[in-house]
Structure formats: structure tokens, C-alpha cells
Amino acid sequence: MTCSFKDKLGQGGYGCVYKGKLPDGCPVAVKVLSESKGNGDEFINEVASISRTSHVNIVTLLGFCFKGSKRALVYEFMPNGSLEKFIYEENQLKGHTQLDCERLFKIAVGVAKGLEYLHQGCNTRILHFDIKPHNILLDEDFFTKISDFGLSKIYPGKESIISMLGARGTAGYIAPEFFSRNFGEVSHKSDVYSYGMMILEMIGGRKNFNVKADCTSETYFPYWVYKRLELNEELALKIIRNKGDKEIMRKMTIVGLWCIQTDPSNRPTMGRVVVMLEDSLESLQVPPKPFLSSPPRSPA
């Protein structure tokens, strides 16, 4: 299918992705999981979660291979790869196209609708737990699909609050309640937080964390975004061409900042996010300033 893994599309902590072709000529992406990935929980998780979905903004799983320790997932092929290639300035220096405001907005809405479906539209509700630009795939027309369900969790019933040991996700996108229950319970609102961080990155054109930076309020990415919102300054100057672009960027900024509120109860649901994005800018209230602190320490 992959001509002996000839055409490598990408690599991550899970393993490698290769381009392949089915007998009928249909192009596919084959994700081969590393053999070091424990007892196969991530593989089973992904198959179990994504096989229950059917939505235009969720990538389609076409099949899987499972033989001993060798595991692979066969997905529809997305020609434009992942969103991260098109939003960070460092990648644009490598020759990748910078997306315009309208296209960024459509991608934001597509991801929001996909997450709304996972949280509310499935027969079995799904929490993704790893929303980030790397896991948002784009087809030839830059239509959006959510991928990589290796860390997802299926939950039955109406409530989405779940008990969990340890954090799930990627540094910079993990909601504070994963680290301390003082912030609230882990739930579908944890995906909302990751989505908010991703939206702010799309607007700012930079990653939300810098491992070389000091942990100060000046370098905390949401503070940087909020400061510009307060001063009515633009974040993505290069792609703003007119008043409409300016309104789109401001709307996405406000929605993103609502999504990363520290208290999960203050974050909107993904259904509400879709409404906010599709509503007028005038109808949106500016959220409180984002707040982040370490869990309280016991006195010495």
C-alpha cells in the first residue's frame, strides 16, 4: 500500500505517517504506531473513538492493521497536511503559504463544529484531549478535519466530568484542571481550553509557549494577546488587509480568550463557540483577563 514506506509524510511521538494508495487508486495516509507505545491502549483508543464518528470535520478512518506488536491506521489522505505549517512565522520562512484572515476563520469554525459534534452529536460522546494545530488536517481546499484520537476518551451519558490520573495532551494546550482539581473538574471544557489556545496561536502567528522564556506575566502568551486586545492593537498585521479582516481577527481573539478562562465553568461550550464565531462582533463581550497560577503550596 505504501510501496515499502517510501513516502514519509510526518513523524511524531506516536510513530510515522506514510503516503499510500489503495488498489482502486484512492490516496491514503498510513499511521504506523511505534512498537514502544505500551500495550496498545492508544491504538485501541483511536480505533474505538473514531470508528464511532461521522462528520465532515472529522478525518475518516478507512481501516487498520493489527498484527502482534505492529499496528497501523489507514486514513483518508489530506493533501495540505496539518495546520501548523500555515500559521507560525517560522514555517512561513520555509516557504509555506500564509493563510488569509477569511481562511483562518473558516478553519476555526470547522474545528469548533467538529468538536461540538464530538461533545454533543455522537451517540457516544468523545473528549479529544489533544487539540492543537498539528492535529488539524487540511484537504486540497483547506477544508478542516480533526485527527489523532490516540488520547481521546469515550464517555456515556449526559455528564462529561471524568476522573483521570495525570495530564493528557501537549504542553501549552493542557487545561489547568488537569494539574490541580482546585481549578475545577476535567470535562469537555478541557477541550475548549485547548481550542482557545490554538485559536490564539492562529491569530498571533506564534506558539503559545517558549521553552527558553522566563515564566513571567510578560512572556505568558494569553497576557500578550490580551494586552493587544485592550490597546486595540493588531496581532497578525501582515494578513489584515481591510476592515473585515480586522473584525474577524478581533472576534477570534475574544472567542479564544473566553475559551481559556481558568475556571472551566466560565468557558463556553463548543456549541456556544460556534454561535459566537458566526454572530456579529458587536454582540461579543470582552472576557476577563486570563489568569494562571501555580497550585497553592502548603506553608513551610
Automatic annotation (TrEMBL):
SMART domains: S_TKc (SM00220). Keywords: ATP-binding, Glycoprotein, Kinase, Membrane, Nucleotide-binding, Receptor, Serine/threonine-protein kinase, Signal, Transferase, Transmembrane, Transmembrane helix. It is a single-pass type I membrane protein. Transmembrane segments: none annotated. Residues 3-292 form the Protein kinase domain. One of its GO terms (molecular function) is protein serine/threonine kinase activity. This is Receptor-like protein kinase. It comes from Quillaja saponaria (Soap bark tree). It is found in: Membrane. ATP binds at residue 31.
